[in-house]
Amino acid sequence: MERPETDALAERYARRSAADPRYSLLRADVLLGVQERQRAMRRLFARHGVDDPAALRLVEVGCGSGGNLLELLRLGFRPEHLAGVELLPERLAQARALLPGALALHGGDACALALPEASQHIVFVSTVFSSLLDDAFQQRLAATMWRWLRPGGAVLWYDFTVDNPANRDVRGVPLARVRQLFPQGRVDALRVTLAPPVARRVVRLHPALYTVFNTVPALRSHLLAWIAKPDAP
Length: 233
What we know:
7-stranded mixed sheet
């Protein structure tokens, strides 16, 4: 019998170190990348009329230890309107210790979560699908997320687009695949994030070089997208 993709995913995550210093916000290249993504997200919000986040309901799939949800709180989302889903119990415990009690956190497979249909304004997913190597599971998760969205809502997507030859536990998710996963969505996509191997090298010379090299679109490794669900007829 074939192993569930959730079990395989947990095993792949177990091979990674949560304390990998390459991803610490104390590193200039990491902090610059996060700040760039935050500015790009603000632009997407402005383009799509998100000017009062306090009124919006958002769930994050694969919320990890809660860092993204903490950012959203600082942007003005209300904790009682936010939720997170996380497969790994240890990461869920870290999120619970970090985030306010009014913010709902759920453990386990997001596909099994009994979230009401059409209940969310935004479903946020960040660097999750690149860790899912089973195409059918990717499609099932995407369909689940789409059901949660109310008409006029959107999937907020952030993930890398190219394969990493040094890491067989992940694979890039190009824009064409995003469109396959959400065939009814209207996709507004930005290429963002200077490829981390490049960022690490150039920022060692000078932090300002992050911005210089990031002006070259071919060196940006991630996709930030607003995938809108059409309004009900």
